[in-house]
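As a representative case, we now present a protein record of this kind.
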Amino acid sequence: MAGMVLAAVSDFGWGSIGKLRLILDRLGGVDIALDEATASWANSGELLGARHRVAGHRERRDAAVALVINDPRAADEISDIGVPVVYVDSLPYLWTLPSEIPRRAALHCAQRSPLAELPAGSPLHGRQDLRWIEPIVPPARRRGGRGEGCVVNVGGMHSHLVGGASDAYLRLVVIPLVERLVDGGHTVSAVCGNLPDWACARISALVPSATTIGVHSGRRFEEILSRSEILFTSPGSTTMLQAAAVGVPTVLLPPQNLSQILHPRIYLTPSRSVLHWPSGVLDLETVEKLRPSGEDAVLEYVYESIVAAEKSESAGRELHDAIDRSVALGPDHRPPLDIEELGTGGAGQVARVIRQALLAPLPRPRTTHRRQAPPPVDGTVGA
């Protein structure tokens, strides 16, 4: 098998990097080059781990095929230089504007969710390149025994608009949660996420020295999850699906962005454990009114609301009371969803498409000479 695969992922949280790793797990022996023109390529190499053979600098146009995950801008740029793109879209139910998806792709692989129908007005309606795939998750494996403690997870904690909202979220939600778990006599075995130094120091002062804190590779996070008693996590779809595959009881923390607002509605039944923002913090009617204007319009509102909530004593008290209730570990805390209903074969399905494209090359798209757009604003990582 000859040819190089160019890989690019969205620089928003860590879900896209996680999906890349799971697909690469099924592409052993394939020459992979990370797209150095995207902002997330350095983090991708760090979080993929040593198992994957990643090539050094390679020109985009040398690729036989590109694997692009949740980054429509990169997909369009790569298509425009004549490289066929296999696009992975893990949030097809989110998009309301044509600019939020690629203009064209050899294949647009949309991850299936319990809401199989696309929302009205979705730019994906009528796409001839659309193919539905199962969720991209690690192979299902059940925990042995009851578990070794509580895991708190907040994922990547970054996007291009987040500003001070990530710090505010840590002070409003994560640190009070850790405090209440410790005060309640619960073992906190890990606090996972792209945590800034100040947050790591605050958390380290609260928990025993054996507690794992900070950034982990995807494989290491799977190990932590498989040994956990219960998971408290921001509601990213990748982590929710991983928790379901492992069978770990899960409490969902208040959302940090639009997809996390939607995920409890999409994936969960009302009986599942969800910790909501106080009604005065985030108005869901406002979110729905903003959605036709695109994800960025919603993100600006959400981040502004989180920053304002940190300054509100009443919002803080109400949120901390809700955290206290969520810490009461009981029978209502269950795995977040039934993974068997959705399937777990998405990574293998995408990997097969890539292997086929290397054996029988896809038609190369016609190159276009487009005026170069201004560079994107750098994402704020951790803040």
The chain is about 35% helix and 15% strand. The two ends are 43 Å apart (CA to CA). The first strand starts at residue 4 and ends at 9. The domain at 150-339 is CATH 3.40.50 (Rossmann fold).
